[in-house]
Amino acid sequence: MDKLTEILGSAREVTDQVIVTDLLVTVKTAIINTAKAINETANEQLRSNLKLKLHAHIEQHERVFSYMMEHGYYYPQTPEQQIHVLNETAETVLTLNKD
Asked: What is the reported pTM?
C-alpha cells in the first residue's frame, strides 16, 4: 500500500488524467450502445426513455471533453501533441499496474 500511495502522490496530475480519459471512453461507449439500443427496440416508451438517456450521455461527454481541454489532457486539433499525451498516460497506467 505504501508503494501505491507513493506512486499516486507523485503522479497525482497524471492519475487525474488517466481517470478522466477512462471516463471519456466510458461515456463514448455509452453513447454508442444507447444509440444501438434505440435502433433495436420496438417499444415506443422504451425508445423515448433511451433517447432522453442518449441526450444525457451526449451532455456528459461535452462536460468531460471540456474538462479535459481546460486541463491540457486532450488535444484533438494537434495529433502529435495528443499522441504524446496518450503515450504518457499509457506509461502511467503501466507503472500503476506494476507490483
From this structure: 0.68
To the nearest 10°, report the CA torsion of 27, 32, 33, 35. Answer: 120
Tens of pLDDT, residues 32-45: 999 999 999 999 99
Listing DSSP states for 25-93 in one string gives HHHHHHHHHHHHHHHH---HHHHHHHHHHHHHHHHHHHHHHHHHHHTT---TT-HHHHHHHHHHHHHHH
Find cell 497506467 and name the residue: 93
CA angle 21, 25, 28 (to 5 degrees): 140
Distance CA(27)–CA(24), nearest Å, equals: 5
Question: Which of the 8 DSSP states describes residue 11?
Answer: T
* Domain extent listing, the chain: 11-97
- Tell me which residue has cell 500511495: 5
